[in-house]
Write a structure and sequence with these properties.
This protein is of the alpha+beta class. Helices cover 34% and strands 19% of the residues. The strands form 4 sheets. Strands 1-2-3-4 form a 4-stranded antiparallel beta sheet. It is rod-shaped and about 95 Å long.
């Protein structure tokens, strides 16, 4: 009769053998084990010694989740389409690193960069920024002369993002200063109407006048 190996106290990956469980004619001898996560499981002696059993099952779940996160780096898709977060990450990198991008002159062309962690990993970007709050929000930089990095980025409404662009003109009317697009929105004007007039030298309430074409429409 073969001598039974005493595995009590020995550690096999995440499993620690506690006590011997005698087998039957149909079952091999096994050991009651406690997993690192706290769960207990009876594992055949051969599976322990060969390394086929490494945990109570929690390790397999964790590895599966990890593979899912790695796959998200290369897709992050919902219903077969890239998510808005992934699209924002792609667009951010493109305008800062691709001279052929239409937005290059306003970003990479003037020295705006993406921090190393975000440039190399979508998941690093996603872990720092989190999901987009809801539809209508875009990636925005707090300081438009700063780089894309955790301390300088946020999800912001598109209207606020437009107001925050460096090309937006700050206009003072009757002692109140607002960006041109905000004045236009409040007075139901075309978005660029105020900045165009400002560029032509007009100031004050003249910037908010209704065009002759608009007056004809409302008659």
């Amino acid at each position: 009769m073969p001598v039974r190996l005493d595995l009590a106290g020995q550690v096999f990956q995440r499993l620690t053998a506690l006590s011997y469980v005698k087998g039957s004619k149909r079952q091999h001898a096994a050991w009651l084990c406690v997993c690192k996560c706290g769960n207990k499981r009876i594992v055949p002696t051969g599976a322990l010694r060969s390394g086929n059993s490494k945990s109570c099952g929690c390790l397999s779940i964790e590895l599966s989740a990890q593979r899912g996160r790695e796959n998200a780096t290369h897709g992050h898709r919902r219903n077969g389409k890239p998510t808005s977060e992934y699209a924002s990450w792609i667009s951010m990198r493109d305008r800062c690193s691709n001279p052929n991008s239409q937005a290059w002159n306003n970003y990479g062309g003037r020295g705006i960069k993406v921090c190393k962690e975000w440039a190399e990993s979508f998941m690093a970007f996603y872990n720092d920024m989190g999901p987009r709050p809801r539809k209508g929000y875009d990636l925005s930089r707090i300081d438009n002369n700063g780089n894309y990095e955790p301390s300088n980025c946020r999800w912001d409404t598109r209207a606020a993002n437009i107001r925050n662009t460096r090309v937006n003109v700050m206009v003072e009317i009757n002692g109140v200063t607002k960006c041109a697009s905000q004045w236009a929105a409040e007075h139901n004007l075309e978005r660029h109407a105020v900045s165009r007039r400002y560029g032509k030298g007009e100031r004050g309430e003249k910037l908010l006048r209704r065009s002759r074409k608009w007056r004809m429409k409302t008659r």
